[in-house]
Design goal:
8 helices; alpha/beta; Nucleotidyltransferase, domain 5; 5-stranded mixed β-sheet
Length: 233
């Protein structure tokens, strides 16, 4: 099964194509440009490396958040457009779960952490059991200190939030805190694709019309609207 996956949840922009468990091509860009300027070009480049036509793909996968509001909208809208126009199935995948999946072989509790700005992070706790991820806490947005609260065992941290708050995490957990290598904190589209594969095979795909970003936190615009409505007399 050939799947093209896209991630635009953070500053990085990643595209990959897999065929079952084999990675055919992947490209990840971390440059100071909006994803709308580079995503379709990266998709064309990755497809070119595989020698496949877009019509030969069996489905699309995309990270749905949490993460950058603008980035998520660009990635999801692009994938929905391709899936709809080609009449192909689509699967949305959590960006936090994707990061945890990239630590699948780690023997510790896994805590993916993404910068949510405003001195907050998106985070969740996972554990690898029998080669599979098991979610041990809900996805949350809170101050970085909340991500480590209650941890009493070795834990591996991954994600741009783990980099940003590494000193705080290390101070709070001391020797219990472990971090992936510097070049492994970026979300990889290949991991998005591999996470989606079992759902494609079980035909547990998403409705392309209903697929939306999972922000967790309300956007500033939504908060302003809600505040304005609350202040009306």
């Amino acid at each position: 099964m050939k799947i093209l996956a896209v991630d635009t949840a953070t500053k990085s922009c990643s595209v990959a194509v897999i065929d079952e468990d084999s990675l055919l091509a992947e490209s990840t860009s971390v440059i100071d440009q909006t994803h709308s300027r580079q995503l379709l070009n990266i998709i064309d480049t990755v497809l070119g490396e595989t020698g496949l036509k877009i019509t030969q793909l069996d489905g699309f996968a995309v990270s749905i958040g949490p993460g950058s509001f603008t980035g998520l909208r660009i990635g999801i809208t692009s994938v929905k457009g391709l899936a709809f126009s080609l009449n192909k199935p689509v699967v949305g995948v959590s960006s936090l779960e994707t990061l945890a999946f990239q630590c699948l072989q780690k023997p510790y509790l896994i805590c993916p952490v993404l910068d949510a700005r405003k001195q907050e992070v998106y985070f969740c706790h996972y554990r690898c059991k029998n080669g599979k991820l098991e979610k041990e806490s809900p996805e949350r947005v809170a101050a970085a200190a909340e991500a480590v609260r209650g941890i009493r065992e070795p834990c591996v941290f991954i994600g741009n939030g783990a980099i940003l708050y590494q000193d705080l995490i290390s101070t709070e957990l001391r020797g219990l805190a472990h971090f992936v290598a510097e070049n492994q904190h970026t979300i990889q589209a290949a991991a998005v694709a591999r996470l989606s594969l079992p759902r494609f095979k079980r035909q547990e795909t998403d409705n392309v019309h209903l697929l939306v970003p999972h922000y967790i936190r309300k956007s500033d615009a939504e908060l302003k609207i809600r505040m304005g409505n609350t202040l009306k007399f």
